[in-house]
């Protein structure tokens, strides 16, 4: 049985039945609960939801972007990944260098006004092309500040030194698998003002027992319909990659969320997903010759037997 979809859908039902209406930074509005935990047995399959299609290559390229320590969306655009476009775009259109049509509240306006949506999409395409081909522009408006890649691979301490948290975790697992210090944090209070988006998944910890690697990740804020399926698969992939390098099997993936919410403009989509029966989970294969997590490329990852229900489209709240 596919417990991953069932566990996720149970959360969706719980929010619809018990969530509180709350306003939010984006102006969209949410149904929200506070405090929720889910567990996924990675031995049962790779937890990429089957009740709607979730794009694995986007998840994988984003994770590899984090692991490279990169914070510039150019790498993502080169891999046809547009997950972070809106955040860089927002940085540009609110700057004094922007000379195009007014993009105030572009996220909401593009959903409500078809004429504006066409204008917005033209400006977004202009932004993407400039990031890809203009080095100076990319340096200014492609970089999102000290987001995940920086914190994971180059955490800056009060002493001015930088620390590679991922490398430390891998070395410590190999040296002392019983360690209770296999922790990575992306939440740096001194960097919040320098981040285009403060970390939503702000910390994670690994645990080794019986030759299996488990991971628990924590989220301060979570868009359940669009974001959470990505987060589950991303941390499952990270667990597989580190287990692969450390010659371990995979164990459990544990999610702990704080403000867990469904945006008001996603409720219909969630209800559609709830009508669907889960299918068999896919499996993940990592090319055997890849020794280091830092050498992994997209073609080294193979998702097997993924046959989900069709995509359910929804707009991201920015």
Automatic annotation (TrEMBL):
EC annotation from Swiss-Prot or TrEMBL: 2.1.1.45
Class of the enzyme per the UniProt entry, highest EC level: transferase
Subunit structure: Homodimer.
Entry keywords, A to Z: Cytoplasm, Methyltransferase, Nucleotide biosynthesis, Transferase
Gene3D superfamilies assigned: Thymidylate synthase/dCMP hydroxymethylase domain
Protein name: Thymidylate synthase
SUPFAM superfamilies per record: Thymidylate synthase/dCMP hydroxymethylase
Residue sites binding dUMP per the record: 25, 180-181, 220-223, 231, 261-263
Active-site residue list: 200 (nucleophile)
Highest taxon listed in the record's lineage: Bacteria
The protein's role, per its UniProt record: Catalyzes the reductive methylation of 2'-deoxyuridine-5'-monophosphate (dUMP) to 2'-deoxythymidine-5'-monophosphate (dTMP) while utilizing 5,10-methylenetetrahydrofolate (mTHF) as the methyl donor and reductant in the reaction, yielding dihydrofolate (DHF) as a by-product. This enzymatic reaction provides an intracellular de novo source of dTMP, an essential precursor for DNA biosynthesis.
Keyword match Kinase: no
GO molecular function terms noted in the UniProt entry: thymidylate synthase activity
